[in-house]
Design a protein that fits this description.
single chain; 237 residues; alpha/beta; six-stranded mixed β-sheet
């Protein structure tokens, strides 16, 4: 197997004296979808914030394509190609769809942003129809398209998707996971951080289950689907 694109070892992080992550180890190899699963409050968002440089770890290492990014700031991590689409979309509501998208190329991909914008609009034709519309007037599903499109504008080498299905209808959730699978087929490496266990395991190659800030389970996605501990805890079986 190739060397990991993202390698996390012994990662500890939290907020002041309150530690949330307790020695997380995980890898993402080039071209993989890796799922990070777990209920609310287990540390998934803290993991994402630490990987993207919004929160400094208290111990451990983060390496991306061989470079040590453990203490790198958010801008340097984006420039390296590790791009985080945050939970809750976080679009700029008073800016147009076009301006939201172009902001995604501010730190990385600015020279090619015209061609990248056209690619994003091909992936999301609904956004093309709404380029001049304020982002805050869009539906939740459209805002999620915009958030992912903005992430793609930075030409990610690894895209972190933080709870992308949160608040979406079952139909839109199904469409979203189909889109994620398509992005992966185009060669994009994805770290998918989700509560939707069934659909995440259906498209991921490998998965990690986090409980109380620890990796409780890790295996190939197909193997985890049959794991009785996961089936009991998350699938009610």
């Amino acid at each position: 197997m190739t060397e990991p694109l993202l390698s996390v070892r012994g990662l500890h992080a939290g907020y002041g004296p309150f530690q949330v992550l307790h020695g997380i180890d995980l890898d993402v190899h080039p071209g993989e979808i890796v799922a990070v699963l777990g209920a609310n409050g287990v540390g998934k968002t803290t993991l994402n914030r630490t990987l993207s440089g919004l929160l400094a770890p208290s111990a451990g290492t983060i390496r991306f394509d061989g470079a040590d990014l453990t203490r790198a700031d958010h801008a340097a991590i984006v420039r390296a190609g590790l791009i985080h689409v945050p939970e809750g979309r976080r679009v700029f509501p008073n800016l147009s769809v076009r301006d939201n998208l172009l902001l995604g190329a501010y730190a990385r991909g600015r020279a090619d942003r015209g061609a990248t914008l056209e690619r994003v609009l091909t992936i999301f034709p609904r956004l093309r129809e709404r380029l001049a519309q304020h982002a805050g007037s869009m539906s939740g599903g459209e805002q999620q398209m915009l958030a992912i499109g903005r992430g793609l504008m930075g030409q990610p080498r690894l895209l972190i998707l933080d709870e992308p299905s949160l608040g979406l209808s079952p139909r839109l959730t199904e469409d979203l996971f189909s889109l994620i699978a398509t992005l992966h087929q185009d060669g994009l490496s994805i770290l998918l951080v989700e509560q939707n266990v069934v659909q995440s395991l259906a498209i991921a190659r490998r998965a990690f289950v986090i409980e109380h800030g620890h990796v409780a389970l890790s295996a190939a996605a197909a193997q985890l689907t049959e794991d009785p501990r996961l089936r009991a805890a998350y699938l009610g079986l």
